[in-house]
Amino acid sequence: MLRTLAASYRKDVKSLAGSPDFANKSRHWAIFANGCFWHAHRGCPRAPIPKKNTLFWEQKFARNRQRDARAALALRRQGYRVAIIWECDVRDSLARLARLLEQTPKP
To answer: Do residues 39 and 68 make contact, with C-beta atoms less than 8 angstroms apart?
Structure first.
């Protein structure tokens, strides 16, 4: 999708909070591509809580959600525009990404 939008980006940017999957530091945007199961996408049929060891999974998913929220907040405080693209919404995300990239100030 980013190539379709002719966006310049880096992958897995470890120097930014949460290591966004895609980011452009000069234009101050970051994108997290979240898998519905591992990031506990609420209300999504792709994110069921396993029947075995339920307490472990509920706690793990809660920690994952907290970590994700902290990372997005830290980036926003640094002036980044942050988008979270869910696995189940990938096909519908192109328009949202285009808006994110349009609103980003150019250097």
So the answer is: yes
